[in-house]
Amino acid sequence: xxxxxASRKSVRKPKILRVAVIGTGGISSIxxxxxxxxxxxxxxxxxxxNQKALTAAQQQFxxxxxxxxWKTMLKAGGIDAVSVCTPNGLHAPATIDALNAGCHxxxxxxMAMNAREAQRMCDAARKNRRHLIIGFQYRYGAGVQMxxxxxxxxxxxxxxxxxxxxxRRRGIPNWGVFGRKELQGGGPLIDIGVHAIEQGHYLMGSxxxxxxxxxxxTYVGNKPSKVExxxxxxxxxTYNVEDLAVGHIRFDNGAVMQVExxxxxxxxxxxxxxxxxxxxxxxSSSPPTIHTDMNxxxxxxxxxxxxxxxxxxxxxxxxxxxxxxxxxNKPNEAPxxxxxxxxxxxxxxxxxxxxxxxxxxx
Length: 362
Ligand SMILES: NC(=O)c1ccc[n+]([C@@H]2O[C@H](COP(=O)([O-])OP(=O)(O)OC[C@H]3O[C@@H](n4cnc5c(N)ncnc54)[C@H](O)[C@@H]3O)[C@@H](O)[C@H]2O)c1
Hints:
36% of the residues lie in helices and 24% in strands. The protein is of the alpha/beta class. Nicotinamide-adenine-dinucleotide is lined by residues 22-28, 47-50, 53, 70, 85-88, 90, 108-109, 135, 137, 176, 191. Nicotinamide-adenine-dinucleotide binds at residues 22-28, 47-50, 53, 70, 85-88, 90, 108-109, 135, 137, 176, 191.
């Protein structure tokens, strides 16, 4: 190789994903902490209407440019990708603006307030030829991945039934706007039920939902309470979301999903998890277990070894996967189309609860 070619090669700049964050509250700090650890990503800007949150993020993560308004930030340029970490009601406008500005986007769960918004976000990604990734970290957990590999290898046969659970006996968030339907789209179903649904739906191969029957009730969150609990003192005066949601979804392949999700109920706390029944095997995501028949015997299979499967680990895998998709065009396990189908499930359950009957999902 000539000296000229060698020196040209040695000055080639490494690829760095320049990321901006919209909404520098609770969850964004995990995004920023991970992004700043990667050699090929950098947090270059952030926007938040809350000056205190913005300054704290700027100082902690050494962010060169901060803004009160994401539109001004996007206009200033120099950004390849955006992480949207606002309350749910702003996911769609912030994501669509970022996509229209030519950025790849990771948007926190739930994708949007409803399926109409989610569809518009998918359309904007397609129109701008940019990646839109949904912040579904649970599917990256080692246990879910073990089950998914078995499902894809046909070891469960057809999966007929998935039961998704996200139950808190008394766990109404006492921060943020989680009790306000106009800003969040709903309560536990859209906030924590979505975690269980995204995993179970992923295991099923992300089939198309076609009909939903759902019911919701509010009987604890909208009243003052003296009961001791993990997060007392939530704002009961503005609380207008459900305490408990249950429902049933039918899919175009004949499979059925059942959902139970609560911020408050007189029942047992559950992990955010699913169980499933297939023609040749079933199991559970927590603890990761397979039930099947082997050599004439019914057996339960559990992993002999699992890499650590905590919240932090699958969050790190999700953020790494986003950078790999945005920077190197690698396939992603949580594309916008999966987010849209999960949103259609949530939407269907809420619409059915309101209508008091089964609703079609188109
Ligand atoms: N993946 C997960 O496990 C996980 C966990 C927690 C939260 N989340 C999701 O992340 C999102 C944020 O949740 P959070 O707990 O960080 O909430 P939060 O209230 O702590 O943070 C939201 C931030 O958005 C800011 N914001 C509000 N309006 C804005 C605007 N117009 N422009 C810019 N910023 C604005 C707020 O000031 C706040 O700092 C929610 O959608 C939530 O569902 C995901």
